Amino acid sequence: MRKVRIGGGQGFWGDSNDAAIHMMKHGGLDYMACDYLAELTLSIMARQKLKNPKKGYAADFVELFKNVVRESHYHKTGILTNAGGMNVLGAVDACRKVCADEKIKGYRIGYILGDDIKEELPELIKEGIEFDNLDDSGLKLKDILPDIVNANVYFGHEPILECLNQGADLVLTGRATDSALFLAPIMKKLGWDGSDQDKTARGIMAGHLLECGGQGSGGNFQYDWRNVPDMDRLGFPIAEVSDDYLHITKAPDCGGIITEQTCKEQFLYEVHDPANYITPDVTVDISKAQIIEIGKNLVDIRNIKGRKKPDKLKLNIGYHAGYKVAAYLCYAWPDAYEKAQYAAQIILKKMQRKGLKAEEIRIDYVGLNALHLDAADMTKEMCENINEVVLRIAVRTLTKEEAYKLVPEISPLQLNGPPGASFFGGRAKVEEVIGLWPTLIPRDALHLKTYIVDT
């Protein structure tokens, strides 16, 4: 029976490399895919590249690549990643240098360009594409065109598979969808042509179960986190896929756990409608899927269905949305919450006298309701007896000067406000705010190109 074994080596930009290195050495992998991109990551990378044209990709991956390129080369374990971010060519050059330093010859690097369409937006608008904001259709893209930082399309498996078909050992992309990094090598190894939508959906969900790294193997685990073994050396999940089954497991001799419950939590993560999970490659229906534990650290996933892929692709646009500053003051028992509330009132009165022009003002009480918001326990007993609370006050403004008005008003409250205040971390810094404009784009408006280079 044909089968493919693929590991999820990263869950985000900044994740640990330990599990990826371990699975490359001990996981018996055919491929490893590493996801580095979240919604705002590309905007951050775009700003990096503006300051330094050599940056704009996930340099973390280059460090990981140094540690696994020999295993990849000698054991023919393919690596796929969207670490290219906003500077795919920069990532390619960095990986070629790694190969040169390690004296590895004949290693093929495939890469994909074309998901960044920022410069094409004005012409596409002229052609009649509306780019309505999915969160607020009343907004018009033309109003923020001068402020756009990046515009990247989420694309599917096709160009990644094309690179693999040309013999790529490593595939570097920009904003490929997380799951497409896994689907493409599954299709390559098993010879799938995409005509069987149920198989395609199974490949997508294999990627979905792996794309968040340790979150699928006991990390961030709500159900039974106390009993996750050896979390200090957490192993990441591995999928074994055939024409007939999808199994989730992990490498031997590492921490973490693969159970029915870990898979269920990751299965539903970021899936708004289980019967209608939309990806560029297929629309997935997991509403009747079965998750069955069939052995220690071995789970079988069944009854995943697929339907036609959407006509449009998601486009995420990042744009300059002003400036922000967030400042903190700690208050201790007794009356910690009451003191923090009073301090907030003092600051707001001062901001009013200074004529602060703010787009948003947010006040949170960390330790009480900053995470749970309206669902927090705000009973009289809780508020009066809480040991400590941190006042967080944040403002968003259109200019740096307006945001800075808050900064000098925080530390004086140690002596000029309610008793027991503690100021930490130095003066707050004014930072740029990047807004997100989620929208859709017709498939035929995207023109991706694949390339291969040899070391």
Q: In percent, how helical is the residue content?
A: 25-40%
Biggest sheet strand order reads: 11-12-8-7-1-2-3-6-4-19
Q: Indicate the structural class.
A: alpha+beta
Shape: globular
Description:
By secondary structure, the chain is α+β, with helices and mostly antiparallel strands. The chain has two domains: 3-115 and 154-310, no CATH class; 320-436, Alpha-Beta Plaits. Helices cover 29% and strands 26% of the residues. The protein contains 13 helices and 19 strands. The protein has helices at 18-26, 41-51, 59-74, 88-101, 121-126, 158-165, 180-190, 197-210, 260-267, 336-353, 380-385, 400-404, 413-416, and strands at residues 3-10, 31-34, 78-81, 108-113, 148-153, 170-172, 237-242, 246-250, 277-278, 283-285, 290-295, 298-302, 305-307, 312-332, 360-366, 388-397, 421-422, 431-442, 449-454. The chain has a ten-stranded mixed beta sheet with strand order 11-12-8-7-1-2-3-6-4-19, with helices on both faces. Strands 5, 14, 15, 16, 17 and 18 form a six-stranded antiparallel beta sheet that branches. A three-stranded antiparallel beta sheet has the order 9-10-13, covered by helices on one side. Strand 7 and strand 8 form a beta hairpin. Helix 3 crosses helix 4 and helix 6 packs across helix 7 (180-190). The longest helix is centred in the last third of the chain and has 18 residues, at 336-353. It starts with a strand and ends with a strand. The mean pLDDT is 96.
